[in-house]
Design brief:
This protein is mainly β. The protein is built from no helices and eleven strands.
Length: about 120
């Protein structure tokens, strides 16, 4: 399994921005995704991108506010989060998908440890 390390979380006021990074130990997977889990809630899909860059998907709740992209040469995927809302508060996880599948949490094979994002009102 590929190893994933997230960084970039923190505390920000509503309306602010944060950028998350996910660095993979190898670029052997098909797709990198971001998920989040708020206290007492299930883990939910946020965004995903193929390493080729040819396919990008967003959840409806972040579309237009978040942007995902990758720097293949660095084995790193990024999530730029703008116009943050208190409802975006969660632990954000990076995940790698080995072969083409859906974007549910069970469709991804490797997971990072997560990084906390807290948005204050």
């Amino acid at each position: 399994q590929v190893q994933l390390v997230e960084s970039g979380g923190g505390l920000v006021q509503a309306g602010g921005s944060l950028r998350l990074s996910c660095t993979a130990s190898a670029r052997t997977s098909y797709r990198i995704g971001w998920f989040r889990q708020a206290p007492g809630k299930e883990r939910e899909f946020v965004a995903a991108i193929t390493w080729s860059g040819g396919s990008i998907r967003y959840s409806d709740s972040v579309k237009g506010r978040f942007t995902i992209w990758r720097a293949s040469a660095k084995n790193t995927a990024y999530l730029q989060m703008n116009s943050l809302e208190p409802e975006d508060t969660a632990v954000y996880y990076c995940a790698a998908q080995d072969t083409y599948s859906g974007v549910g949490s069970t469709d991804f094979d490797s997971w990072g440890q997560g990084t906390q994002v807290t948005v204050s009102s």
